Amino acid sequence: MAFGSGNNTMSWVCLHLLLVLVFSAKVVLCGTRVKSIPGFAGDLPFKLYTGYVSVGKAEMFYYFIESEGNPKEDPLLLWYSGGPGCSVLSGIVYENGPIVFNYTAYEGGLPSTYYYPYSWTKTASVLFVDAPVGTGFSYATSADEFPSSDLKTAAQVYGFLREWLEEHPQFLKVQLFIGADSYSGLTGTIVVKYIIDDNDAGVLPRLNLKGYVLGCPLTDQTLNGNSKYVYSHRMGLISDELYEAAKESCNSSFYDATTSEPECYEDVQLMAKQIKDINKLCILEPKCTWASPHQDGETARRYLHENPEEFIRSLPEDPDYYCRNFNYMLAYVWANDEGVRKALNVREGTVLDWKRCNKSLLYTEDVESVVEYHKYLSTKGLQVLIFNGDHDLTVPNTGTEQWIRSLDLPVVQYWRPWLVDGQIAGYTVKYSSSEGYRLTYATVKGAGHSAPEYKRRECYMMFDRFIHYYPL
């Protein structure tokens, strides 16, 4: 039976969970159906549930959107955003969810939203979670729970997933995929390994893991740091002369230039200066300041005085000079609205100021690389999709392609364009292993970081083909 279909089903599930709570003293909560939200005309044309799952002292907030196709058979995708500390609501409204802000008609007040048809929820049920704790609407019941790290985040996400699936056992039988983007490429990969290890150890319930999806994923800190200069040179942002000089003086290792020879350090500083004013999220778009309705007062004035090349721009008449950050600002207004929070069943007094990306998160980066994790996973029979915007300077495609090649997997489909409506949407190559591991890598033409935000429909087509085992 589909999730939450019928009051009797929900009542029985909640009663069962209440009995579990009474006899085990374990906090479990039922998701609540959200039929309408402020700013959206009429009832939502899809099934949205929100709620919390307790993982230790952390209360993990989630949005579950049931597949608009066949929820009894379509896969389940767990998805969370990067940062670390960026709310998954950003992914829902800007990347792969079924609602978007109507920013072109915005005149102040609560932003309006509308249905977006090319959502990943058209073809899969998606469980969006704010992770780690301190992100979005997720919070902790004890102050000592807020400090987080890469390994703690992975454990937290895995714990959340197991708890949620135990609360909703009807989804244990469908195919499960783990999805994450940007910085969460590190932790998402570790989550996959946790599932594999527990399945191999016979932990019950067994999770029906089939694969994972990573968008513009941070995978190796050193490799990614180097790739920014390699990519910038390829795109003509750094001259041949300077790049070749830096390669020689640094022995092609730019990331650790601060501890290298003086000549290497100087060359890297010159390269960094060439790309300082480039928008790292998308090299073709203007560089604008971080947009927030709280960017005012002395702090904002001092920042703009010290950084005159960055500015807050209202929505211009000329779309060629549009700053994407204007659209981000609407999320702050919307998610901090009392009516929106009530509709989403956010607990009062738990998160006083929602942020799209929580920059004050107490976070320790304790994983330098997950390339070895990917090598381990390549011995398992998983289906994998890795994609990258080809105008992304935050996690450049050059670095992504480098670590994928380091897995030393046989190529089964060589580099070729993939199409949407007869037009090239990017390029793809497919690898495999003798153990049944299948890795599809795809670039998204013209996209930045992360790719679905720039090419939302094309990324939906890519995901839809992959998740149902069709070639791109």
UniProtKB/TrEMBL annotation:
Pfam families in the cross-refs: Peptidase_S10
GO biological process per UniProt: proteolysis; secondary metabolic process
Signal peptide: 1-30
Organism superkingdom: Eukaryota
Gene3D superfamilies per UniProt: alpha/beta hydrolase (3.40.50.1820)
Residue runs in coiled coils: none
The entry's keywords: Carboxypeptidase, Glycoprotein, Hydrolase, Protease, Signal
Glycosyltransferase keyword on record: no
Gene Ontology molecular function terms on file: acyltransferase activity, transferring groups other than amino-acyl groups; serine-type carboxypeptidase activity
Keyword Protease: yes
UniProt cross-references to SUPFAM superfamilies, sorted A to Z: alpha/beta-Hydrolases
UniProt cross-references to PANTHER family, sorted A to Z: SERINE CARBOXYPEPTIDASE-LIKE 17 (PTHR11802:SF329), SERINE PROTEASE FAMILY S10 SERINE CARBOXYPEPTIDASE (PTHR11802)
Family to which this protein belongs: Belongs to the peptidase S10 family.
Name of the protein: Putative peptidase S10, serine carboxypeptidase, alpha/Beta hydrolase
